[in-house]
Amino acid sequence: MRIREDGRMAEHALPEHAGDIAPEEFRAQGHALVDWVADYLATVEQRPVLSRVRPGQVRAALPAEAPVLPEPFAAVLADVDRIVLPGITHWQHPGFFAYFAITGSAPGILGELLTAALNVNGMLWRTSPSATELEQVVLDWLRRMLGLGDGWFGMINDTASVSSLLALAAAREAAGLDVRTKGTAGRGDLPVLRVYCSTQAHSSVDKAAITLGIGHDNVVHVQTDAQFRMRPDLLAAAVRRDRSVGHRPLAVVATTGTTSTTSIDPVPAIADVAERERMWLHVDGAYGGVAAIVPELRGVLDGVDRADSLVVNPHKWLFTPIDCSAFWTRRPDILERAFTLVPDYLVTTERGEVTDYMNYGVQLGRRFRALKLWMVLRAFGTEGVTARVREHCALARRLADLVDDEPGWQVVAPVPLSTVCFRYVGGGGLDGAELDRRTAAAVDAVNASGEAYLSTTRLAGRTVVRFAIGSLRTQWRHVQRAWDLLRAAVDEAAGVRAS
Ligand code: PLP
């Protein structure tokens, strides 16, 4: 843009090609892209699950500068095929069994498209009443599907990490320490604040404590029982010990579906301790909470009606494209007290009558995530999602039975949901370190095959395979194949011919 000598901007013509594309062109490109997506989903199984690019390879194939002139959509799509796809690890692949296997279902993908088309920022009720009210309704639906009663306030965040951060921020607010106003630095009147979770809890609890100035050292990782569940007696003892030295127990985070083994902490007994000690009880059901939609698995959320807050991630096991984390609290007044801040430019006449979600968290701008979750739930129906979750658990049990029956292999944790933890134990004569090495090498070999992708964890000091089932595309044949590849890999390493 040119500036004239008198300081005013010169008249200029917008170059014809600058900016957005015309609706008719969009229609054509959109059709081409939807065709691309449909082909991708139909053929994803033929691709190697784990990307095979070397570090820096994708970057090196891309130009250092943005193009000066517009480029045709076909050229962009060609580069997606040529440069981007090789650097994709295919989370939509039926052989994806690492971490927690997830699926962006077709209705969810369409929901993302619609979300982008509307491009709503749902910071205030008035900035799109439908965004706020659909979020409230869809979270009420989901809450009822999980078997939870009334009296919960729901909101959608990007991730469980953020949902748990908000929970602990609310816990700090509830403690009445005036940290919101005065901060923590230089305050002799503040006790040391303590947060409790099990040794199996997700690192997002630690990160929340780091972020909130509680301090990593003040996250107490309570030991678990032989089934990797938090021991409430040890929780009570830790709280007692902390009180005796003047610390302030702030909150306890129970996990229903821990990351390594999907163990389910005994929430009712933990709630007893939380109530007695006046601590905030947050339940992290990021992965496992979803299982409560299956009537026979409803027990995973036993006792949660006594919690102050709960997180369940539809982007983990409810077929909603990442990101979508459902967060509920029974104490929205505290959450609002922790985060309300209304600058002049965001004052509205309906304040007090409506929910302005910006007042319940850190972020101002909010994506319209409820839309895709609503579209998923309507497309599947409660019957559909229930059947899928139930099927994943059945596949996991079937795999666990196979592993149990296989000499030289051992299932090392209960399988309450859809993840199986097991390891190679050999036929005797090999030490623990060698068994760890063989277990890890077998996983590496499977991952190199391109047919499946598994991850590992450490349990009781030993390396174990985590086999997580959660993809809509996974059938028994995919599970069986990955298991066959694992067995063949250890046999090969041991110099035995694979059968
Ligand atoms: N909580 C549990 C139990 C998890 O397993 C995970 C991730 O796997 C998280 C929290 C973090 O989830 P997010 O990636 O949504 O922050």
Describe this structure in words.
This protein has 499 residues and is of the alpha/beta class. Helices cover 41% and strands 12% of the residues. The chain is built from 15 helices and eleven strands. The protein has a seven-stranded mixed beta sheet, sandwiched between helices. It has a four-stranded antiparallel beta sheet with strand order 8-9-11-10. Helix 14 crosses helix 15. The relative contact order is 0.13. The structure holds pyridoxal-5'-phosphate. Pyridoxal-5'-phosphate (PLP) binds next to helix 6.
Key attributes of the depicted protein:
single chain; 499 residues; alpha/beta; 4-stranded antiparallel β-sheet; 11 strands; 41% helix; 12% strand; binds pyridoxal-5'-phosphate
